[in-house]
TrEMBL record:
Protein name (database record): Methyltransferase regulatory domain-containing protein
A family per Pfam: MethyTransf_Reg
Region (Disordered): 1-22
Residues annotated as domain Methyltransferase: 49-147
Sequence ranges assigned to domain Methyltransferase regulatory in this UniProt record: 219-300
Source organism of the structure: Mycolicibacterium fluoranthenivorans
Length: 434
């Protein structure tokens, strides 16, 4: 283990990351997104799952508990975090979890594979170059041919501006002292910058933007993001190029709504679609338009490239289960051809006078936070319309599919390949907590 890696181990031993359950990298979400884009994923309930840089297992342990037939392996450099994870797994009686203390650049995980899902969240941009290579190498060699991997990373251009703040903090902060002391010094430095920034300047905007979001940022996040020894953002297309060198390809974003120009102003969306020759080019341009700073990419072996489809069509819907909460903004649905808004005020809303669409939104909202299958949704919409004394239109299925397509593109619906039903434990986190 080289000295840079030893320092990183000490950083995470002294200031554990403080992970929380993340629904986005969860294999059930990854499987549904892969299916949506044409790539059939392995079954989730019996999957072999690996997390690289699993910290104390906050992502893995809830999954292992929900899917006792799955096999779950995590590896992390920090012995302190792995010990904490092993302790929790033992206390919860989880027998399908193995947490390994080791360096991904040195540990040969192939004997434990192949894995159906490999998750690497919050690691790739924050490690030395040889570890980044090791992450992609592990995915190349340990991912099953039908498997799906997830890698999150910081990207430009969003990080260009954030780097100014990071450069200031790392230049004037001395990496000594206890983590809490370093975080306190960093906050003092940010306050100082805010005090001296000329009114209306770029610097003032930068500090204000940072402060507007930093209220929720804990010390550990600050230490492992702005003050992190290693933080190497890259452009999306450069990440894709690195995948190519490892016989891997980009499949989709774990937040598919970020992949579509339709979420921008109509004229801008039209220009973007006309100008871009490929999905990759479109997404790179969208990163510029949205000044994106962070990505969560799904990755598959290059041999599956031909299966990938970016037109999210109804052909992929019949196997999916959907969940969405978009109540009628004025309290209840009127079947009188009047137009109504659906969705909470202040959030993205749907405006419609279509009876089928209104009934579908009612059915989804009534089921939330649980899912309703594509087949059941259509049946329930028919029942709702006939119950209201209306004849369901002949093209009802098409209208429902167009609604689902629009909800997916706008990021207003969650979907899974397996149903999400009520659980016995009312305190269990919802699968769709975001
Ligand atoms: C920011 S934390 C992310 C933790 C977790 N994946 C999550 O989503 O909450 C990064 C983790 O990567 C681990 N890590 C860094 N370098 C590593 C390496 N070379 N091998 C294994 N783990 C490493 C750190 O110890 C740390 O726990």
């Amino acid at each position: 283990m080289n000295s840079a890696t030893q320092r990183r181990r000490a950083d995470y031993d002294e200031a554990p990351y403080g992970s929380s359950v993340r629904p986005v990298p969860s294999p059930d979400h990854l499987a549904a997104v892969a299916h949506l884009f044409g790539v059939d994923p392995p079954a989730v309930d019996t999957a072999r799952v690996l997390e690289i840089g699993c910290a104390s297992g906050a992502n893995l342990l809830p999954f292992a508990s929900a899917y006792p037939e799955a096999t779950v392996v995590g590896i992390d450099l920090s012995g302190v975090q792995i010990a904490a994870g092993r302790h929790t797994a033992a206390a919860k009686g989880l027998r399908n979890v193995t947490l390994l203390h080791g360096d991904i650049a040195e540990f040969d995980l192939n004997p434990l594979g192949p894995f159906d899902f490999i998750v690497c969240h919050g690691v790739y941009s924050w490690v030395p170059d040889h570890v980044r290579e090791a992450v992609l190498d592990t995915i190349r060699t340990a991912l099953a041919p039908q498997g799906v991997a997830y890698v999150s990373y910081d990207v430009y251009p969003g990080w260009k501006t954030k780097e100014v703040l990071r450069d200031f903090l790392t230049r004037f902060d001395h990496p000594v002292g206890m983590p809490a002391e370093r975080a306190r010094r960093a906050r003092t430095l940010i306050d100082f910058l805010g005090d001296v920034a000329p009114a209306g300047s770029e610097l003032e905007r930068l500090v204000l933007t940072y402060l507007s979001t930093s209220g929720q940022i804990g010390d550990n996040y600050l230490l492992h993001e702005e003050l992190e020894r290693f933080n190497s953002p890259c452009y999306f297309v450069d990440f894709v190029e690195r995948l190519d060198a490892h016989e891997l390809v980009y499949l989709a974003d774990a937040r598919p709504d970020t992949m579509y120009a339709a979420n921008y102003a109509e004229e801008a969306a039209q220009r973007l679609i006309e100008e871009c020759e490929s999905q990759l080019e479109l997404e790179q341009r969208l990163d510029f338009v949205g000044n994106r700073a962070f990505r969560q990419s799904l990755v598959v072996p290059a041999c599956r490239a031909a299966q990938i489809r970016y037109d999210v069509g109804p052909a992929r819907f019949p196997l999916l289960h959907f969940a969405s909460r978009l109540p009628a903004a004025d309290g209840f649905t009127r079947f009188d051809h009047s137009s109504q808004y659906y969705g909470e005020p202040g959030t993205r809303q749907i405006y419609t006078n279509d009876h089928g669409v209104k009934a579908a939104l009612d059915v989804l909202t009534a089921c939330w936070p649980h899912t309703v299958s594509w087949h059941r949704l259509t049946r329930a919409v028919r029942e709702r319309l006939t119950g209201a004394g209306l004849e369901p239109p002949a093209d009802l299925q098409t209208r429902i599919d167009m609604l689902l397509q629009m909800l997916i593109v706008r990021g207003l619906v969650c979907y899974r390949l397996d149903p999400v039903a009520p659980v016995d434990d009312p305190t269990a986190p919802s699968m769709f907590t975001r």
